[in-house]
Each structure stands twice: as structure tokens, then as C-alpha cells.
Amino acid sequence: MTPQPLRILVVDDEPDMCWALDNVLRQAGYTVTTTTSGVEALELISRAFYAAAFVDAKLPDLDGIELASLIRRQSPRTCVVLISGFFYPADAAVDERVKEGLLVGFVAKPFDLDQVRLLARRAAERALGGGESGDMHTDSGR
Description:
This protein has a six-stranded parallel β-sheet with strand order 2-1-3-4-5-6, sandwiched between helices. It has one domain: Rossmann fold (3-Layer(aba) Sandwich). It has helices spanning 15-27, 38-47, 64-74, 92-99, 113-127, and strands at residues 7-11, 31-35, 52-56, 79-84, 105-108, 137-138. Strand 3 (52-56), helix 3 (64-74) and strand 4 form a beta-alpha-beta unit. Helix 2 (38-47) runs parallel beside helix 3. It is 40% helix and 19% strand.
């Protein structure tokens, strides 16, 4: 029996970002669900297990860090990666959330697609219990 591809949730209010992440992650072998709403993301998390969630820091209905906290409370094994054109890895808010384990990584927009694939793989490994606990910050050179 062939194992099912791991699910990844993408939450970004920009449809073009959802499309780009959907395409790169599907090509890497993941099953991807996208939404532009934090509230809908929570509904999706309640219905299925996602190994990782890529969450935009600034959503119209929920703050991305708040959404990350709600996702982790609802699905503790889901690894959350914050994506943002607003925050940067050196930001205290991002660094603190990574250190406390709320976030497993951060990607600044615009991002390198190879970095997204690497971060997805590491987050998925961690969600399944086999990943390393190393630093997963990526900043695309910004």
C-alpha cells in the first residue's frame, strides 16, 4: 500500500501567494489545501490532520501569530511556519515564538521556492516525530 502524501495547509490573504505555494508544494509531493481566511483555516484543521501550516502573519480576520496559537491548540502535532512580508527573522516577536515552540520556522516574502520546499520537508518530519529540532529560519536574503 502506497502511503498517502502529507497534507499542508496554506493560509494567505493573497490568492497569488496561495497559488504559488500550492504549486511548489504539490510538485514536491504534498497534498495542499489553501484558504485566504484564518477562520476557515481553523475549520479545515478541525476536519483533517495537516502536518504543516504555512500561515501569513497579516490576515484580515486573524493575526497570523494568534492563528498559529489556535492551530497548535487545536492540532498540537501540526507544525506552523510563519510567512510574511512584514516581519523578518530578526524580529523579536518571530524569534520569541520560534524559541517557545509555537512556530517551527519563518519565511520572509518574497521567498525562494527551494527554501519553502526544505522548510515543508523539515516541518513534516517534525510533525511525524522524526525531525530534527534545528533552526528552521529562512529569510530569502532579506
